[in-house]
Every structure is written in structure tokens, then in C-alpha cells.
Design a protein that fits this description.
By secondary structure, the protein is of the alpha+beta class. It has helices spanning 41-47, 95-107, 158-166, 174-186; strands spanning 2-4, 8-10, 16-18, 25-29, 35-40, 51-59, 65-70, 81-82, 85-88, 116-121, 130-138, 143-145, 150-156.
Length: 191
């Protein structure tokens, strides 16, 4: 079951407030993923500066992958199908902590899940100039989608994901396509 809910962060007095993502302060990194400064998210995307993200592929017990459809209001890859959960790493945050935060914020997965670190992908145009750390976990639902970030979600079997990856008009983000190909090359995408 998939439901929608807004995403909140904690304000100065601990109150929940909606996030203004273009104003988020993120770490800018170099080609070796070393921090070289900080800048607002909107500026980073506008200038194509390198930064960090965590990507999570969520599989269910049947080996199906959960894909999220990015909000049509997103500044990067709006309306495309993407990793189950993904987000920018906050300053001082680890990739794993970011992955857990994004699972909760985007999909409503609050309980502890075992995150398996898979690999890192260097920043490139395909990743939106993000150094990506990729994780995998198992979760059968339910999901509660955050409507400001995610328009829809669906489970896809590995054979269907193969078809989507090969079809350039399938509406997948370049990052999701690249991650799936790397997972397939490892021989065990959903396990």
C-alpha cells in the first residue's frame, strides 16, 4: 500500500516545517569526493557543481524493485522514474545516515532495515554531478510517499526493469539506469 505525506524538517524550536530544498546548504566536493566548500542546493544544480548523494534500491521478498516517480516539480529529472529513495548528503552526514533519512522522508520507512552498501559511482552528468553511494535493502511495505518529492511508486520485477533500462523512452533517470546495469553486472541485483 502506498500513501502520500508531506516531508518536514525540525525548525529552530523543534517544530516541524516544510523543507525549502533550493536553500539547503550542501557540501561541494571535487573529483576525488573531497569537500572543497559549501553552497546552496539551487546554486549547486545551476552551476553543475559536484556534491554527494545516497541512492537506495528497495527490494521486496519477491525480488521486485520499488521505483519512485519523481515529482514533476523537481528541478532535476522531474517526472522520471528513479531509485527507490535518494537524496543529498547533508554537511557532516554519512552516506548511510543520509540513506536512512531518505527512506523515512520519501517512503515513510521508519523501522530499522538492514542497509547493504553496494558501490560508489563518481560524479558525472548521468548522476547530476553527484558522487553517489548506492545501498540495497529489503522491505515489503507499506510505503507512505512524500508528495513534494514523489508523485507515484510501483514495484517492478527484474525482467521489467531490464526492459525499462534498455528502452531510452521508458522515463528512467540516467542514475537509476546506470545503477541497475551495475547491479546486474554483479550477478545478484535483488538479493
Amino acid at each position: 500500500m502506498v500513501k502520500n505525506r508531506p516531508v518536514y524538517s525540525r525548525g529552530a524550536q523543534g517544530r516541524r516545517v516544510l523543507k525549502n530544498t533550493s536553500e539547503e546548504l550542501l557540501e561541494v566536493v571535487d573529483e576525488r569526493n573531497r569537500v572543497v566548500g559549501r553552497e546552496r542546493r539551487g546554486v549547486i544544480h545551476a552551476r553543475g557543481l559536484m556534491h554527494r548523494s545516497a541512492q537506495v534500491f528497495v527490494f521486496n521478498a519477491r525480488g521486485e524493485l520499488f521505483l519512485q516517480k519523481r515529482s514533476a516539480k523537481k528541478d532535476e529529472f522531474p517526472g522520471l522514474w528513479d531509485s527507490s529513495a535518494a537524496g543529498h548528503v547533508d554537511p557532516g552526514e554519512s552516506y548511510e545516515d543520509c540513506a536512512r533519512r531518505e527512506l523515512e522522508e520519501e517512503l515513510g520507512i521508519c523501522e530499522a532495515v538492514e542497509l547493504e552498501p553496494l558501490f560508489q559511482i563518481p560524479a558525472s552528468a548521468d548522476t547530476g554531478f553527484e558522487h553517489c553511494s548506492v545501498f540495497r535493502c529489503r522491505h515489503d511495505g507499506p510505503m507512505t510517499l512524500q508528495p513534494h518529492e514523489v508523485d507515484d511508486g510501483r514495484w517492478v520485477a527484474p525482467a521489467e526493469m531490464d526492459r525499462l533500462v534498455e528502452d531510452e523512452k521508458s522515463g528512467l533517470t540516467p542514475a537509476a539506469r546506470r545503477i541497475w546495469r551495475l547491479l546486474k553486472s554483479s550477478g545478484n541485483p535483488g538479493t
